[in-house]
Amino acid sequence: MNRLSLYIHQSLEGFYPLSELQSLAKIVCLDLLGVDAIDFYSGKDIDLSEKKEKDLETILERLRDNEPIQYIRGNADFFGLKFNVAPGVLIPRPETEELVDLVIKENPSVKRILDIGTGSGCIAIALAKHLPLATVSAWDISDKALAIAEQNNAWLGTSVVFFRKDIFSEILNENNYDVIVSNPPYITIAEKKEMDANVLNWEPELALFVGNDDPLWFYRRIASLGLNLLSFGGRLYFEINQAYGIETSLMLTALGYRDVCVIKDLFGKDRIVKASR
Ligand SMILES: C[S@@+](CC[C@H](N)C(=O)[O-])C[C@H]1O[C@@H](n2cnc3c(N)ncnc32)[C@H](O)[C@@H]1O
Questions:
Q1: pLDDT tens-digit series, residues 155-214
Q2: DSSP letters along 7-26, please?
Q3: Which of 66, 110, 136, 253 is most deeply buried (CB count within 10 A of its CB)?
Q4: pTM
Q5: What whole-number distance in Å separates Cα of residue 28 and Cα of residue 49?
Q6: Where are the domains of the chain?
Q7: What would the pLDDT profile of 135-151 be if each residue is shown by its tens digit?
Q8: Ligand 1 mean position to 256 CA, how many Å?
């Protein structure tokens, strides 16, 4: 290990599990300080300029304050693409890649897609990249999220159309979409105490929590909007809280959806519910 990596390890010891320190040191050196990868891996000593030494101290301070590395870096990897992220927008998660993958595989020639609660735009933009026949629209209530989603749309060269919309406001009945996909807020207040500080202190509450502690609050509303927004035979795809697969599917069946199905993620947890209108 070179002296710089050793210093990073020592500065973060006790703040992160030992198993994470190597990958943090690598991101700090290669992505944030611009250290040459060959120098980094060769173990030779690396001299930083005075400016970079100052930058390093700022980065270490932010890491000790539990700020997610994706916010410090300003981007996150999702579905093979780099998305800009900043406090105020949820960092895209790997389980959401499984949702995107399923929608792409099951709807190769879909024409009209709506992503509800788009955040960074990761679902909408990844779908637009991989489903060239589709027109993709996306809604979010947060101006901050929409501004970042627009940046990602421009930078990744897609043409998603974003709208500021509160799904609990009045929404016109349109029968406009063949697929609706959503990863809405789904963490209950009871689950809050089990969460890590880097999520709790840094990621937006608006994106994470179901305010009134009804775990199906967003799902019920989106599903009932879907009855009017989806064309006949159109499909609804939800990312869900692993604890509520059965409840979500019963709710969809009761509303009249067909072919309701709960799908597990790579870790064997209930993670996606899909249904047809
Ligand atoms: C769990 S995040 C998902 C973000 C992104 N789709 C992803 O998968 O990373 C939920 C999103 O729903 C948005 N949201 C919360 N309440 C909303 C509402 N009433 N109407 C529309 N969007 C809302 C939040 O701003 C947030 O961006």
A1: 999 999 999 999 999 887 776 999 999 999 999 888 888 898 889 999 999 999 997 678
A2: HHHHHHBTTB-HHHHHHHHH
A3: 136
A4: 0.95
A5: 15
A6: 3-65, 75-276
A7: 999 999 999 999 999 99
A8: 25
Give the separation between CA 43 and CA 260, rounded to whole angstroms: 54
Q: Which residue has the tokens 């389980």?
A: 95
d(CA 161, CA 159): 6
Residue nearest atom 20 of ligand 1, based on CA coordinates? 166
Task: State the distance from the centre of ligand 1 to the C-alpha of 224, rounded, in angstroms.
Answer: 17
Largest Cα span, the chain: 65
CA of 185, closest atom in ligand 1 = 1
Q: What's the pLDDT tens digit per position in 50-92?
A: 999 999 999 999 999 999 999 999 999 999 999 999 999 999 9
Strands 75-78 and 81-84: antiparallel
> What separation in Å is there between the alpha carbon of 221 and the centre of ligand 1?
13
- Using alpha carbons, list the distances in angstroms from residue 203 to 35, 89, 212: 29, 7, 19
147 in Cβ contact with 127 (< 8 Å): no
Residue 116 alpha carbon to ligand 1 centre in Å: 7
- What three-state secondary structure class fits 197? helix
- φ/ψ of residue 262, rounded to 5: -100, 135
Are the CB atoms for 148 and 84 separated by under 8 Å?
A: yes
Q: 116 pairs with which residues across the strands? A: 139, 182
Torsion, Cα 169 201 119 217, to 10 degrees, reads -40
| 167 touches ligand 1 (CB under 6 Å) | yes
Q: What is the third-level CATH fold of 75-276?
A: Rossmann fold (3.40.50)
Ligand 1 geometric centre to CA of 119 (Å): 5
Indicate if ligand 1 lies below 6 Å from the C-beta of 225: no
